[in-house]
Design brief:
5-stranded antiparallel β-sheet; 7 strands; two-stranded antiparallel sheet; alpha+beta; 193 residues
């Protein structure tokens, strides 16, 4: 499965990890399964990959169970990148800003509670922005590739995001799915800020 994504923000963004302007050239979204014994070791592995290559590369790992599919991720990436463009970002790190936008939270701690890494068995979404193609191979050496984790689980998502069953039933009758609900919450975050 090819998960290369074309997201056009038509802008440059300021990445706090790099004083140069960030241009959104490539985005790749990949699913993985793993067992995390030590969260910090996992984060250090990701930093090592980035350190050995380039400053402009962004790798953000998120809990796949809190994601309502690829469209939800792409929407959050776009909103995160645009927040930096407008200088309305909440976080100083674009990867964390993307988590904030995907989770539709105003607080970093809440976003990370929802999307952050946890000890034990996990399904992970990796978002790679402006990274060389071989970075996926690096992630494959550490995690087990499984893009099926990108398929949303409605029962888990409605609990994570506190969406009443009645609301889902009403929305499904007019052909709106949970990804649309969560993307609407992300868009509403702009108005609330």
């Amino acid at each position: 499965m090819n998960n290369n994504t074309n997201i056009n923000t038509n802008n440059t963004n300021n990445n706090s990890n790099n004083s140069n302007n960030l241009i959104l050239n490539t985005v790749e979204i990949a699913g993985f399964k793993t067992e995390i014994a030590n969260i910090q070791e996992t984060l250090d592995f990701i930093e090592k990959i980035k350190y050995n290559c380039c400053d402009a590369c962004i790798i953000q790992l998120m809990d796949a169970k809190a994601i309502a599919g690829k469209k939800h991720i792409e929407h959050g990436i776009l909103h995160g990148m645009n927040a930096f463009k407008r200088k309305e970002n909440i976080a100083n790190d674009i990867g964390i800003e993307i988590c904030i936008r995907i989770s539709a939270q105003r607080q970093i701690s809440k976003a990370l509670d929802i999307l952050g890494l946890k000890k034990g068995k996990m399904e992970i979404v990796a978002v790679l922005i402006n990274c060389p193609d071989y970075f996926i191979d690096e992630l494959n050496s550490y995690f087990t590739r499984d893009d099926d984790v990108l398929d949303p689980d409605l029962s888990i998502l409605k609990d994570i995001y506190d969406i009443p069953q009645k609301e889902l039933e009403t929305l499904s009758s007019i052909d709106i799915n949970i990804a649309d609900v969560l993307m609407d919450r992300t868009s509403a975050l702009i108005v609330e800020l």
